[in-house]
Amino acid sequence: MDRDEIERLLRLIIEAGANRGLREKDILSRAGLGKTTLSKIKKSGDARMSTLARMANAVGLRLTLAPNNPTLDQLLSRELFSSKQSAHRMTGQRSE
């Protein structure tokens, strides 16, 4: 995984935790990880898969594999229909 993918996973995990009323330190504690783990991951842009899985589990998520599909990625990140141009592209209409 590259740095962007790691950052995206962390953001999703932290957002899921926040939705459950958990702060970053609460997530780390529930995952059985040290206080400095998150800052080290952010600084290096790298993390062990087991660390990410533990953090995900702490907020009620799990890591899974999915086909490498750009349209699916856009859909899951809510970017597929983020602009009129995207919507028009999908319907075959021209944007003005």
Compact summary:
This protein has 96 residues and is mainly alpha-helical. The chain has 6 helices and no strands.
- The amount of beta strand, in percent, is under 5%
Which structural class do the helices and strands define? Answer: mainly alpha
**H and E string:** HHHHHH
Overall form:
globular
Q: What's the number of domains?
A: 2
- Rounded mean pLDDT is 85
Report the radius of gyration as a whole number of Å: 17 Å
The rounded distance between the terminal residues' Cα atoms is 39 Å
Number of helices: 6
Poorly predicted runs are: none
Helix coverage percent of residues?
55-70%
Largest sheet: none
Please report the total strand number as a whole number: 0
Task: Give keywords.
96 residues, mainly alpha, 2 domains, globular
List the helices and strands and how they pair.
Layout: H1 3-19, H2 24-31, H3 37-44, H4 49-58, H5 70-76, H6 84-91
Helix pairs in contact: 1-4, 2-4
Structure description:
With 96 residues, the protein is mainly alpha-helical. It has two domains: 56 residues, no CATH class; 31 residues, no CATH class. 60% of the residues lie in helices and 0% in strands. The protein contains six helices and no strands. Helix 1 packs parallel to helix 4. The longest helix has 17 residues. The radius of gyration is 17 Å and the shape is globular.
